[in-house]
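Q: what sequence does this backbone want?
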């Protein structure tokens, strides 16, 4: 059978350093008149300072925590109803964007947040528009229909069209203050999105091109952005890499590396990017087929082995944890079992079973 694919990318993208200043005009262009803005606490003063030029923002909510809880999304949804908002603006990291996306999806449908989270109530097809403004370069959440949400210790990655943003405003200058460790973690998350979008069983030509570009941008710019956070060119290229990474996995979805990241985050507390990076070089080696080898050569590398070494070197440089011995008391059987059982593992080109995953982790002991 010949090549067949379906591609759609519904998010309008505004990109450029300093574009946050134009947020008011963008909201006007999108026809939004009454928006609840959700932001990371540290970004509140910056938005407050812009407030006089943002007549469409009727409320500013900044009680966002890392690993966002469902209660936060429920509170934002209540605020949206109370203020009769016609849109949501989310300015911040993945936690903020995911909270806003969840809240906007359920705000006017009337159900309990927990019922949607548990799959006992279907997300509505219509929802109020969300404008995403990422302040880190990594998650790609600005252009995806993914929301990662927790209820107590229960953490879920929910992929639903109701979460698709209307527009993304990517202003790389917002990432200038990101500390080096977060720069490295989020940058490697973007690389994982691109690689997994590329080798996912559902990959397709347009997403592949996004992945190629994202991988190249990360390899050329992550170290520079980590070394000097004020390097706007490197920051801008990393924001672009995160955007392309998001577009690269939005349709194909991620695979083995993200599958393993969830147990590593939930049971051993690794931040998302560090958890993805933990197995990324191992999966590069596992998935090193002719197609990946060809991609590596296109990128000017000798092959997949060199790509794996580059990833390992970046982890080392950033001081990321790379060994199980650094994670405390690890239950290897449970870890291998949970990773093997994660639904994303099925997207991996080579689907490792529990024993193979155990061997992979033993090599990282
Ligand atoms: Fe990710």
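A:
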């Amino acid at each position: 059978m010949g090549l067949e694919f379906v591609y759609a990318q519904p998010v309008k993208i505004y990109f450029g350093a300093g574009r946050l200043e134009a947020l008011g005009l963008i909201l006007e262009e999108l026809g939004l008149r009454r928006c609840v803005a959700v932001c990371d606490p540290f970004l509140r003063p910056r938005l407050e300072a812009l407030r006089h030029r943002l007549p469409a923002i009727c409320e500013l909510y900044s009680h966002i925590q890392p690993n966002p809880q469902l209660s936060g999304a429920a509170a934002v949804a209540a605020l949206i109803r109370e203020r009769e908002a016609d849109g949501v603006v989310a300015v911040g990291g993945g936690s903020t964007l995911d909270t806003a996306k969840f809240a906007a999806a359920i705000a006017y449908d009337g159900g309990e947040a927990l019922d949607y989270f548990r799959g006992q109530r279907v997300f509505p097809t219509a929802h109020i528009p969300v404008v995403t403004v990422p302040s880190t370069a990594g998650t790609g959440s600005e252009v995806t229909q993914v929301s990662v949400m927790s209820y107590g210790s229960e953490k879920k990655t929910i992929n639903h069209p109701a979460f698709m943003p209307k527009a993304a405003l990517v202003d790389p200058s917002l990432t200038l203050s990101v500390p080096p460790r977060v720069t490295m973690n989020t940058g490697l998350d973007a690389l994982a999105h691109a690689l997994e979008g590329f080798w996912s069983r559902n990959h397709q030509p347009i997403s592949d091109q996004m992945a190629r570009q994202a991988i190249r941008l990360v390899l050329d710019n992550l170290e520079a952005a980590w070394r000097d956070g004020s390097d706007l060119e490197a920051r801008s290229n990393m924001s672009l890499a995160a955007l392309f990474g998001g577009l690269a996995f939005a349709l194909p979805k991620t695979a083995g590396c993200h599958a393993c990241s969830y147990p590593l985050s939930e049971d051993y507390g690794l931040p998302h990017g560090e958890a993805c990076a933990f197995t990324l070089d191992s999966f590069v080696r596992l998935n090193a087929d002719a197609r990946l080898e060809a991609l590596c050569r296109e990128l000017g590398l000798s092959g997949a082995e060199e790509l794996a070494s580059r990833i390992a070197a970046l982890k080392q440089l950033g001081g990321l944890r790379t060994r199980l011995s650094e994670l405390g008391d690890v239950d290897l059987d449970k870890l291998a079992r949970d990773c093997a059982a994660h639904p994303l593992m099925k997207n991996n080109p080579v689907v490792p079973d529990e024993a193979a995953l155990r061997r992979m982790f033993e090599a990282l002991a």
